[in-house]
Amino acid sequence: MKTVIFPGTFDPITLGHVDLVQRAAALFDNVVLAIANSEKKQPLFSLEQRIDLCQQSFSHLANVEAQGFSGLLVDFAQAHNSQIVLRGTRSIADFEYELQLANMNRALQPGFETVFLNALPELSHISSSLVREIAALGGDVQPFVPAPVFAALQEKF
Question: Is the pLDDT of residue 142 over 80?
Fold first, then answer.
């Protein structure tokens, strides 16, 4: 059984994330969203809220689960019997950064692999940080996020 780890802060999860997870769920036996605690980023939603929003957003996919983590990604992956991480890219800048991370992870754990999926063109402009900013300023983010996230953002703002 092949398990892929999809790490991120998912603050909040967007339709871009949803697309990547759905595509990964068709390619791998299991997809584990590794939701980074990431307190230094001062997330809008708590770790528990982000896990819950991810679980709600992927309840229709039996082979997808969400778990919080802190520490090294290679250690989290190893604890889940995986040496494969999924990363999404929207631009060349994303790819350059992700390539650096992929090479570092492989240096930390030989044999560790990174699979890159490109964002669909119609979703490539969406980012969690832009969604947070638009929502904070009273804009409509419904076209960019799953329904549970939209409801949670409405409660926040």
Answer: yes
Query: Average pLDDT in the 121-143 region?
Result: 96
Sequence-separated (6 or more) residues with CB below 8 Å from residue 30 = 1, 2, 3, 4, 63, 64, 65
Q: Among 79, 71, 99, 76, which Cα is nearest to 87's?
A: 99
Set 2, 41, 46, 156: catalytic member? 41
Concerning whether 128 is annotated as a catalytic residue, the answer is yes
Buried b (16+ CB within 10 A) or exposed e, 48-69: eebbebbebbbeeeeebbbebb
For residues 65, 95, 139, 18, the Cα torsion angle rounded to the nearest 10 degrees is: -20
For 82-86, what is the mean pLDDT?
A: 97
Consult the annotation and say whether 14 binds a ligand: no
Helix axis angle for 128-136 and 147-156, nearest 10°, is 40
Summary count for the chain: helices (H), strands (E)? 6, 5
Question: Is the pTM for the entire model greater than 0.85?
Answer: yes
